[in-house]
Amino acid sequence: MTFTKTSQKFGQWADSRANTVYGLGFSSEHHLSKFAEKFQEFKEAARLAKEKSQEKMELTSTPSQESAGGDIQSPLTPESINGTDDERTTPEVTQNSEPRAEPTQNALPFAHSSAISKHWEAELATLKGNNAKLTAALLESTANVKQWKQQLAAYQEEAERLHKRVTELECVSSQANAVHTHKTELNQTIQELEATLKKKEEEIEKLRQEIDNARELQAQRDSLTQKLQEVEIRNKDLEGQLSDLEQRLEKSQNEQEAFRNNLKTLLEILDGKIFELTELRDNLAKLIECS
């Protein structure tokens, strides 16, 4: 199997053995690239597992010795080993052959490959179902539009033919009453056709409006997505500014704390100086009194 990218969001899954090609749609180019990488990774893992299995089978496929009854054991030969399947055929042995243990070293890779294969098969089935529904709806809408256009053209041709017929009857017929009656019937038929034509035109216009509404919703979704991205960017900027302000606030608090400590130390020094000056004044006063 091969997987090929056809555009930014679409790819083709081709199976050459089944002569089948599946178209896969993805929501973004990142998902498409991731799927392609995983596809190639699992394909390479399956190829390596297949080569290891073939090597093991080649080593164990040598002819065995004859048994006591003279019968010869049949060699072990793999009938089918697929790249992503875990199906392996067990060798047939004769009634008199000795039992031989099969290699179990590759059981874990094959089981892992089988689980991954089943997972991707389920994903593929889901994508196929969605694509089938979308394709069916698109084909149905296209078929309805084409059918209505054909009916519109047929009604227009019928109306023109009836008008011509009325004109011919008016010119050719000599019986005025019969012509008038026929003309009335034709006019009624024309009116009915025109009413049907108008109804079909209204349905076509309704479909066009629905398509325009879908496009507008898509544009609104894209606009909202862009606005959301802008808001996320703005939030990141605000978070950066908030972090910067918190750092500045912490720095300012640290500076205030240091200033308070310095001021406290200075006050303690001033208290000591004032106490010394007070003692000096008392000593001077005592000296003056003594003298």
Automatic annotation (TrEMBL):
One GO MF term attached to the UniProt entry: G protein-coupled glutamate receptor binding
Keywords in alphabetical order: Coiled coil
Gene name as annotated: HOMER1
Region (Disordered): 47-107
All copies of domain WH1, residue ranges: 1-46
Stored SUPFAM superfamilies: PH domain-like
Positions with biased composition (Basic and acidic residues): 47-58
Coiled coil: 138-269
Name the record gives this protein: Homer protein homolog 1 isoform X4
Comp. bias intervals (Polar residues): 74-83, 91-107
PROSITE patterns reported for this sequence: WH1
One Pfam family this sequence matches: WH1
